[in-house]
Design a protein that fits this description.
GO terms for molecular function: gamma-glutamyl-peptidase activity. The chain is of the alpha/beta class. The protein is built from 12 helices and 15 strands. It has a single domain, classed as Class I glutamine amidotransferase (GATase) domain (Rossmann fold). β1 and β2 form a beta hairpin. The termini are far apart.
Length: 357
């Protein structure tokens, strides 16, 4: 109950020290209307080499199901966002959504028409929305966190190499971390667990340092709440947020504690690890509740949500993801429904016979 109460209080706060997130009109600083049926977009990415090897030539992109579950577990629904689309597609879909999650992964930022290019559109559109007072949060996990700072640096490769695979760590908080939006209402139990127990799951060969931020003048726009050190004692940023907009990044993987069960990867599944991971999910979803975007009606929602696409048990094929949503090249949202409201979608028949094992 303490966790849920604290998280609800987060939704009532709309001001960052020194600047309003979406307005400077003090009359609007009262409790805003909340959207209690938020829908969050999760960006897909190029199919991984591993998955392509197991399902050769069948799919162009994928979303690890743990990110979908992370959002759903926080109290929202999910719409997949495709890569390789023009800007007007992202403008259209984001006008219906209440936030975007940029997931982790193993793709490159210099691949054309992929994850990074889609992220560039999403980041630019989210900036424009928030600038005009249209509250729209963006969350980046691991590679998504790195992408946020990469885009803020105008596409300059600013990351450092580090060695933090299969590494479970407590967070090293900055002195002022409790003044951040991400942690100002965090229950003391959450803070103590994060400070003292190795509950954050790290899997990254690149990272962002405080010097990286300073070198590209990003420290004026982004604040660091915590750091960590890799296996070689190289210090990197582990949590970050934009000073003026509801953009958030974590270098670790809270969704893995909750939903990934691959063995020998040093992922903590203790009750404390689950508790703090759930905190991050609920924090982001509560940020999305502040967005009042919506689809025109429930039937249109049904045509877009992730439920139209079947997850595959990729863990049985040796993947680090227990389940994945994999999409062929010609993928699209449903445009009509059967009489029983089940989806009409070409992908269903394509993968249905193939993935049953």
């Amino acid at each position: 109950m303490l966790l849920k109460t604290s998280l609800f209080l987060i939704t009532l706060l709309g001001v960052v020290s020194g600047r309003s997130l979406v307005t400077t009109n003090l009359d609007l600083l009262q409790t805003p209307p909340l959207n209690n049926e938020p829908i969050i977009g999760v960006l897909s990415q190029e199919i991984s080499y591993y998955l392509d090897g197991k399902y050769p030539g069948l799919y162009e992109s994928y979303i690890a199901a743990s990110y979908v579950k992370f959002v759903e577990g926080g109290g929202a629904r999910v719409v997949p966002i495709w890569i390789g689309k023009p800007r007007d597609y992202y403008e259209s879909i984001m006008s219906k959504l209440n936030g975007v999650l940029l997931p982790g992964g193993a793709t490159w930022f210099n691949q054309s028409n992929g994850y990074a290019d889609a992220g560039r559109h999403i980041y630019g559109i989210a900036l424009e929305m928030n600038e005009r007072g249209d509250y729209f949060p963006v969350w980046g996990t691991c590679l998504g966190f790195e992408l946020l700072t990469y885009l803020a640096a105008d596409g300059n490769e600013h990351r450092a190499h580090c060695s933090s695979s299969n590494q479970a760590l407590p967070l090293v908080f900055k002195d002022d971390f409790k003044t951040s939006r991400m942690f100002m209402n965090a229950p003391e139990t959450v803070v103590k667990i994060l400070e003292n127990e190795p509950v954050t799951a790290n899997f990254h060969q690149y990272c962002v340092t405080e010097k990286n931020l300073t070198d590209y003048n990003l420290d004026k726009e982004w604040r660091v709440m915590s750091t960590n050190s890799d296996w070689n004692d190289f210090e990197f940023i582990s949590t970050i947020e934009h000073r003026f907009y509801p953009f958030y990044g974590v270098q670790f993987h809270p969704e893995k504690n909750l939903y990934e069960w691959v063995r020998n990867k040093n992922i903590s599944h203790t009750s404390h690890a689950i508790f703090v991971s759930q905190y991050f999910a609920e924090f982001f979803v509560n940020e999305a509740r502040k967005s009042l975007h919506h689809f025109e009606d429930s039937k249109t929602e049904d045509q877009y949500v992730i439920y139209n696409f079947p997850p595959t048990f990729t863990g049985s094929k040796g993947s680090s993801f227990e389940q994945s949503y994999m999409f062929p090249v010609e993928i699209a949202y449903n445009v009509e429904l059967n009489e029983d409201n089940s989806a009409i979608n070409g992908i269903t028949s394509l993968v249905g016979d193939f993935i049953e094992f």
